[in-house]
């Protein structure tokens, strides 16, 4: 018990919410409350075209008064929201290529302290952007972008998937799991639970709250980064920090540790192709403790090798059910991407491009050539099935 607690602390993993930040702070002390008040009124300030002016008026603050991990994560979250809003403005193509020093300097210092890149991350807008709305445990997000309830649906569904994975992660940390039987059982329970939650919440919440056109035309813009993005091909200049512009990928659920965690546990290897490189790169957008956790999992015995070495049909079947659950998650995710990116893109396309052309052209907020990437990742997962299905 003591052992697991220490390990939880080492890897910043919570028994109840997994990789999500437990009970994120909602307020910062003066003078950082000025950041909070901008972030809280973001949609209104953007709508009234006042956001950039308000940001430029902010005082340059030292980050020394942000004490403790939760205050620093809240600081990173609000500066991330402010930065995205400052760069993309009203989402109409009038963009800024320079982030003023009063924001850039504290943002980069804080990012360095946390070991995170200075851009809005999944670790910010999903893992640290939530609160319990009422005693019955209903949840809400702390900060929103324009686009109505779109962000709420997207971020909360992702968070619920994270929480569903918590017990499997907890299990994979406990001491007795070098017993490969228990490891397989835990992975099985975890993957099946994640698939269940993913499907239920997508159907019940996501499809209700997240309108494809609002997602595509509004929220997606504010999550976009400045790497492989023709709108900011040089990157963003962080004034007062670096002399040249820097490129960082936008917020994407590809930065979640869960899928990568299950891949490692199941021995699904993504190696030597651009998709593998992208997944590897996405680890550098995760909190350092979670990156270390993924590395530490790799050094433990692989469930796949264990199953193969035993030649036992029941074990193989259980293993295949886990892999099949990952395949169906990735299949369902691909359908969502068609609905939320490709179809709205085809409606907007003046050149009447076909879905195939759009598949080749479209990029995700993380900057990937998205369909190629997602299909490669799914293909690697399918290849891990022991039996043909
Ligand atoms: C409107 C809903 C969604 C859309 C349009 C979407 C889109 C994308 C895109 C375009 C990528 C490629 C990487 C990039 O460039 O960003 C990606 C990757 C990924 N997304 Fe989503 N996503 C959605 C929801 C979710 C949710 C709710 C989850 C689960 C928490 C999720 C998990 C992942 C994962 C794990 C990857 C990495 C590829 C993999 O391991 O299969 N996505 N997503």
Automatic annotation (TrEMBL):
Its main location: cytoplasm. This is Indoleamine 2,3-dioxygenase 1. The keyword Membrane does not apply. It catalyses: D-tryptophan + O2 = N-formyl-D-kynurenine; L-tryptophan + O2 = N-formyl-L-kynurenine. The keyword Nucleotide-binding does not apply. InterPro entries: Indolamine_dOase, Trp/Indoleamine_2_3_dOase-like. Keywords: Cytoplasm, Dioxygenase, Heme, Immunity, Iron, Metal-binding, Oxidoreductase, Tryptophan catabolism. SUPFAM superfamilies: Indolic compounds 2,3-dioxygenase-like (SSF140959). Monomer. Catalyzes the first and rate limiting step of the catabolism of tryptophan along the kynurenine pathway. Involved in immune regulation. Pfam families: IDO. It comes from Rangifer tarandus platyrhynchus (Svalbard reindeer).
């Amino acid at each position: 018990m003591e052992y697991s607690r220490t390990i939880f602390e080492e890897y910043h993993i919570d028994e109840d919410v997994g990789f999500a930040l437990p009970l994120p702070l909602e307020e910062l002390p003066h003078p950082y409350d000025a950041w909070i008040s901008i972030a809280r009124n973001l949609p209104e300030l953007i709508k009234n075209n006042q956001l950039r002016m308000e940001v430029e008026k902010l005082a340059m603050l030292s980050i020394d008064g942000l004490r403790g991990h939760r205050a620093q994560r809240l600081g990173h979250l609000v500066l991330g929201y402010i930065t995205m809003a400052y760069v993309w403005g009203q989402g109409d193509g009038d963009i800024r290529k320079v982030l003023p020093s009063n924001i850039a300097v504290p943002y980069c210092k804080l990012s360095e302290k946390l070991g995170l890149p200075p851009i809005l991350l999944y670790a910010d807008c999903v893992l640290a952007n939530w609160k319990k709305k009422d005693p019955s445990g209903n949840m809400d997000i702390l900060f929103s972008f324009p686009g109505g309830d779109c962000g709420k649906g997207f971020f909360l569904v992702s968070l619920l998937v994270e929480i569903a994975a918590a017990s499997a992660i907890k299990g994979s940390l406990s001491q007795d799991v070098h017993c490969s039987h228990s490891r397989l059982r835990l992975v099985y329970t975890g993957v099946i639970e994640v698939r269940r939650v993913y499907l239920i919440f997508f159907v019940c919440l996501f499809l209700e709250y997240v309108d494809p056109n609002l997602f595509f035309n509004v929220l997606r813009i504010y999550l976009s980064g400045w790497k492989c993005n023709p709108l900011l091909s040089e990157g963003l200049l962080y004034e007062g920090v670096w002399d040249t512009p820097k490129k960082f990928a936008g917020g994407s659920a590809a930065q979640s540790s869960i899928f990568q965690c299950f891949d490692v546990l199941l021995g699904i290897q993504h190696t030597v192709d651009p998709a593998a490189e992208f997944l590897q790169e996405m680890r550098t957008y995760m909190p350092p403790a979670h990156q270390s956790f993924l590395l530490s999992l790799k050094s433990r015995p692989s469930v796949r090798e264990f199953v193969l070495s035993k030649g036992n049909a029941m074990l193989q079947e259980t293993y295949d059910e886990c892999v099949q659950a990952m395949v169906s998650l990735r299949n369902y995710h691909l359908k969502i991407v068609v609905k939320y990116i490709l179809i709205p893109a085809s409606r907007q396309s003046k050149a009447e491009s076909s879905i195939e052309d759009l598949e080749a052209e479209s990029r995700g907020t993380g900057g990937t050539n998205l369909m190629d990437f997602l299909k490669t990742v799914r293909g690697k997962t399918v290849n891990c099935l022991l039996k043909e299905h």
